[in-house]
Amino acid sequence: MLKMPSTELLSLSDIARLANVQRPVVSVWRSRSKSSAVPFPESATRNGTQEFFDATEVVAWLETTGRGNNAHIAEDMTAHTLGARADFMSVSALLALYAISGERLSDLDYEDLLDLADETDPEDAFIYSEIEALDQASLSLVKYTERLVDAAFGVVPAFEQLMADRFRLNNSELAECALSDSALQIAATAALEISSKSLCFTENTPGGSDLLITVAKLLGESAFGTFLLPEKPTADTAISRLALRRLRTFSAAQENVALIRSDGSQRGLVHLAQYPGPGDPQMSFAAMLDAIEELVLQLQQDERAIILAPASLLINQLNSPDLEGARSSILRSGRVRAAVRLPRGLVISKPQQALGFWVLGPEPTSVPLGERGILIADLLDQTIDDSVMGDLATDIAASLGGLESIRRHAFRFAQLMKTSTILASKTGLVPVAKTTFQLPAGNYSNSAEALVRTEAALDEANRTAGCRPELDIHLQARTTEHNAGAQKTLQTVAELQQSGAIQHLPGTRISESDLAPENSSGVKVWQAEDLAEGTATRTIPALALAAKYPRAKLTEPGDIVFHGGPHPGAQVDAKGAAAVRFPAQILRVDQQSVHGIVPLVLAADINSGATGHWKRWGVRTVPSDQVSGLTAALLKVNSEKQAAEERLKRLEEFSNRLVGGITNGELEMMKTNTSTEGRP
User: Fold this and answer.
1) Cβ proximity of 359 and 401 under 8 Å
2) What count of other Cβ atoms lies within 10 Å of the Cβ of residue 265?
3) Do 584 and 507 contact (CB within 8 A), yes or no?
4) Cβ-based neighbours of 293, under 8 Å, separated by 6 or more
5) Are 277 and 205 in contact (CB under 8 A)?
6) What CA–CA distance (Å, rounded) separates 470 from 461?
7) Which residue of 155, 257, 528, 668 sits 20 to 30 Å from the alpha carbon of 189, by its own alpha carbon?
8) Whole-prediction pTM
9) Mind listing the pLDDT tens digit for each residue in 350-382?
10) How far apart are CA 519 and CA 539, in angstroms?
11) What is the CA radius of gyration of the chain?
């Protein structure tokens, strides 16, 4: 067991949090004050390369210099020191004992402390072993714990601050499965929405307590909630004991939360579960499905459950027949009433992982087997806010009603899909959303109308060409139909990528310091900000690119350089041989493909109508025999557009200089002999 140091210590990051400033600010304070009358304190000790500072000295320096944005630095000091992290389990046990007993622990000697722990936890379920492990040398933790409570303004805030500090601990079990506040709020909001008036909840997460604590926080002070301990005691591990300490602390300090052992008499119970949990972070998909199936089998008809697990298990297509069979068996039970794909980034340590969300409810025995369904929703590209959480919760609550109530509810996100259809599709519970583009022109009644309208538009463009040559483009009505032209749902980039028609090449993480000034010689570099302007202005020396970024992918003529996100952009690189700086990336179209992909069309669609993740962008196609002709025509049109834009810029510049010269008195208009007779 790590012993708390005799001196309370702060790292540079701790100091930043204590002073309520950004981490680099502390380094600036430290360097700039070296030659001042009040230099920053010297480090007290090191752990490898990390420095730690005497907390008392740091507080004195902050108060003397007036640095930081915290008026209560001295009071808050203990809540930011190394002590709680150095002996996390012991401090959490003392916090629980403090909350449950109500005793001032610093008034007790070692034997009295042990007796109090034994009275509080006679079965040694959550604190006695941790208190017993303390010795006389580590009893300073007792006073430290009381100061921690004072600094956090309460035992529950102190415990929650301790839990929030888990990401700075060298303990993957605590941090690996931690969910973001948004994910916890989604689950807790839905749990409250589907609960009965009894407000009775339990958590089935291995070693978990986050979901129940979030529900307790959402209850507020006016509602009374009952939290049940699992009927089967959790394995006696450090993580499970920590979870129980946390729940005991919360229920002891909050009068509106009761933590009791289940006796089977509770009604309307809502189960919450996250897989994997901190008690088993390496839990396999098979084990997760086994745990979910066990939960389904134990649910009483009036009980409900909310389950969070990777979307790749709960929602997406499964490539393992065994896993697919196990999931299908659960779906056939009729207890899965809603399935939602949540956004990425809700698992803090796995920002690219999407979460799946199941709601289990009563089996709809009144609905014929063939008519039973699951409400599905795809929130993968949604930004989670209070509105989304509230509407999702009401959608979920409606999913637990009968068919009539489902049909009467105006769903924002969900749609009812027959369970039999889901099982037969083998493509997952929530179909991959495909982007559709609003075609700017089309829906002609026949080919003749299309020809007339398009040629009229060309004639009008040529009529206004002025001194520019007319566009020489020849069209005729097509006698054979092209099915892709009329389709409403398009093939996605991912589907075309899988077929080999499109290749994705990642951008290179090129350091800003390696880029040459604008318009320097070297290898052209496309950046995300260049895509709106249509030209790359930065370069990188060829030798630097080869030496530092040997795996960098260069563009080829016709490649689409793009970036995704909420405001995507794209340009076709006509010349090629350019580097692409991340987050910009490359889509390369197979010119021999029969899919009829025109890079200029795809780039224009990305700029005008693409939404969601780039892999789900829809791709408009043309007949394969029209690709080269359409590409040539579009190049001519784009050349004329660029010429027109260039002339517009020149006219705008002339207009500005003309007005400026006249208004400043530097220029005047020459008088002409042009007659104005007959004019007003």
Assistant:
1) no
2) 5
3) yes
4) 326, 329, 330
5) yes
6) 8
7) 155
8) 0.61
9) 888 889 999 998 888 777 777 788 888 888 877
10) 7
11) 33
